[in-house]
Amino acid sequence: MTEELLQRYFVSQTTLEEARQVLDWFDTEAGQAYLAHRLDTQLSPTDWPLSASDPMPDANRLWHRLYQTVHHTDLEQEPTVRRLNWYATPMRWAAVLIGALLVALSSYWGYRQLYPDDLIRNTAYGTTSKLTLPDGSMVTLNGNSRLRYAPRWAYGQVREVWLDGEAFFRVTHQPHHERFLVHLPNKLTIEVLGTQFNVLARQSRARVVLSNGKIRLDVGQQSTERLVMLPGDLFFADVKTNVFYRKRVDPAVQSSWQEGKLRFDGTTLGEVAQMLEETYGVTIVIADTTLQKQAISGTIPNKNLNIILKGLSTLFDLHIVRQANQITIQ
């Protein structure tokens, strides 16, 4: 979640899908901690023009009050807070922020009422997880990924999931040909026609590789046409830089991560570094720009990050130094 998106959300400048992304994030521990932190920051002692005898507003109590307000429940033993100077500048900014947070909380709990049964599956950095969807379709989530879907799909209902991260789908065909849609955070939508494919969706970019069957890609505002993919097709899109291309690849290479190994076939070291950063939550520094563009091919184990780094070092003659979550490649 980016600060820029959060700021746009608080001033109602997000799209519907972006708003849903923010509201889903509020459902995580990180999202709850963010809201609480904003209250704590705004309610610091230096921001409130109080005398020594005035009580300092308690962010935790205020947070609890906002929660109870959204749920329309009564508070027990409400704390008494003296009326403060409304015309003090810090107080006005506090009121604006509290109002924005109240709107965010109201939107969040209203959203959860609209979608009370949605299931959300998250994977931590460096982990994978397998799950079965209501129609029997199988999904393998890569590290640092998130999937949202309904716990049941009615007869004739479109099957929809929302993915942020990387996943491999094995979609089942239904007797009545119900559509299966995968919504990505970069406004791309995949329509599945009974197939197996790998999807990587991070921020503004996406990479889709088809193994079996056939899928259609709706690239949203970037095109009025749908792209039909066949087995072995790779489609890449970066809606931020407006880069789109399609090429033929070996699908097994692109989805090898779910088999406990990483296979590279002409992959640049810069692309490998980006993949490791997103999947394992580390920062990788490659000072030599020519080294970033070096293409590598081969297979290394994918059991954990240290084994991956050792494999890269041995197989491609690289000097790799790791200090906590920062990795330097020379």
TrEMBL record:
Residues 261-329 form the Protein FecR C-terminal domain. Pfam families: FecR, FecR_C. It comes from the Bacteria. The chain crosses the membrane at residues 93-111. This is Ferric-dicitrate binding protein FerR (Iron transport regulator). Residues 123-216 form the FecR protein domain. InterPro entries: FecR, FecR_C, Ferrdict_sens_TM. Keywords: Membrane, Transmembrane, Transmembrane helix.
